[in-house]
Amino acid sequence: MSEPESLNEVEPLVRHIARHNYDRLLMLSDGVFAIAITLLALELKVPEQWDGTLADLLRQSWRSIFAFLFGFGVVGLFWAAHRRMFAKLTAADVPLTVINLFLLCLVSLTPAVAELLATHGPAKGISYYFALFAAIGVTQLLLWSYAVFVGRLAHSDLTVHGARLELLRLSIPAIVGTGMTLALGLGVTMEDRWALPLLLFIVVPTALLRRRLHRRAAA
């Protein structure tokens, strides 16, 4: 998040408004991400018929714990990407604001999908999680594409190579989420014997690509 605004700072009105809009958008974004994670934790409750042992607690609450960890991972992953993107931007215009608001709308659905997963289990709820994962990934990809290549809102020191590397990095969650959503939509279930190999087939190459892109960006 950028530095808090100073009401005593003398600057042109146009620049002040632009900085104000950028700062407020970042504040709202961090707030929505934080609230989404908080609501995920609120779903963790002690079972009424708990006998006091850890084994019984895990047996009765494993769905809620799984949903929390999965949801926390989703929100945390996209918050980190959001922070990384906006660190390379200098302003926020109307189209960027609209795309970002839609992104926050999707993020705010994470606790609801987590409750669905906790109530009905991974077999029924995981497809909705991956669908939401894919939607957030595609929206973040759209946000970066607009900000850098259309709106020209990136920092002047950001090179074309750096912008394209970030684009490839942001495409990984979109690819994984979309791939898993399509696989589950075609009838693949978590109980299928080749569900895990399919997941690894999608995740491992993208993880290796992400690692390679990280090394290239650091070089």
What's a quick, concise take on this entry?
The chain has 219 residues and is mainly α. It has one domain.
| Portion in strands | under 5%
Radius of gyration: 20 Å
How large is the count of helical segments? 7
Question: What's the end-to-end separation, in Å?
Answer: 26 Å
> What's the β-strand tally?
0
| Unreliable stretches covering 5 or more consecutive residues | none
What is the helix content?
over 70%
Shape: globular
**Total domains, how many?**
1
The biggest sheet amounts to:
none
Task: Give a verbal description of the structure.
By secondary structure, the chain is mostly helical. It contains seven helices and no strands. The chain has helices at residues 13-42, 54-86, 94-107, 110-120, 122-150, 160-185, 195-218. The longest helix is centred in the N-terminal third of the chain and has 33 residues, at 54-86.
Keyword list:
mainly alpha, 7 helices, single chain, 219 residues
SSE map:
Blueprint: H1 13-42, H2 54-86, H3 94-107, H4 110-120, H5 122-150, H6 160-185, H7 195-218
Helix pairs in contact: 1-2, 1-3, 1-4, 2-4, 2-5, 3-5, 4-5, 5-6, 6-7
